[in-house]
Specification:
By secondary structure, the protein is an alpha+beta fold. The protein has one domain (about 1-210): endopeptidase domain like (from Nostoc punctiforme) (endopeptidase fold (from Nostoc punctiforme), Alpha-Beta Complex), CATH 3.90.1720.10. It has six helices and seven strands; from the N terminus they run αββαβββαβαααβ. Strands 1-7-6-2-3-4-5 form a seven-stranded antiparallel β-sheet. A hairpin with a 5-residue loop joins strand 3 (about 65-70) and strand 4. Helix 4 (about 120-135) packs across helix 5.
């Protein structure tokens, strides 16, 4: 049991890599918002030690966190995502949250990022957005046990996977990673990124602030 807890704690560290905020920076986030559409997928590679742990665990070594792009009640772009370690922003609760787009890709959290779109998003975007906001409004807790079959909680890729599965699309196409001592295989961001129906919308870049 002790060994399992150590393994789970270590995995929490590297799955949370996309949200690591150890490195502060004087960089401004640049994203072409004219290209964005609700339902787009946003990927980021986080900073710090835990991000390197993701690269060790995932042979693809690409991105460590994922979320869904929507517009808030004021018409501003934001990202709904499941993330641990940011409970100070959600009244002490680790739940699915909605961050402003530029905060999600903040240079203190992000080494690199990209926006991707599923080919048929025009036909399903409304359903995707409704389901994502439903998860957010329910304040679904973060899944610290990483059990895909448990629908009462969700980790980052699980959240996105389940939103699309609701409209009959398996973004991961069955791809999984097996982690020793975990009850179920895990979906990594790379398992979703490999889906050939995804196409790049734009990259995220950074410039020095004036």
């Amino acid at each position: 049991m002790f060994l399992k807890r150590i393994c789970i704690f270590t995995f929490v560290l590297f799955v949370a890599a996309g949200c690591n905020r150890q490195v502060e920076s004087e960089l401004e986030v640049i994203i072409d918002k004219t290209k964005l559409q609700e339902g787009d997928l946003v990927f980021r590679l986080g900073r710090g030690r835990s991000s390197r742990m993701v690269n060790l665990a995932d042979k693809e070594r690409s991105y460590s966190h994922i979320g869904l792009l929507v517009k808030d009640s004021l018409g501003e772009w934001c990202v709904i995502h499941a993330v641990p370690g940011e409970s100070e922003e959600t009244e002490g609760k680790e739940i699915i949250k909605c961050d402003p787009l530029l905060r999600f890709f903040g240079s203190d959290r992000t080494v690199t990022g990209i926006v991707m779109r599923f080919d048929s998003i025009d036909y399903i975007s409304q359903q995707i957005v409704i389901k994502a906001k439903e998860f957010h409004d329910k304040e679904l807790p973060f899944d610290h046990n990483y059990i895909l079959s448990d629908t009462s909680t969700a980790y980052c890729t699980e959240f996105v996977y389940r939103v699309f599965l609701n409209v009959g699309i398996d973004l991961s196409e069955g791809r999984r990673h097996t982690i020793p001592l975990f009850k179920e295989p895990i979906i990594f961001p790379s398992d979703i990124l490999k889906n050939k129906a995804l196409r790049e919308v734009c990259e995220v870049s950074f410039v020095k602030k004036n």
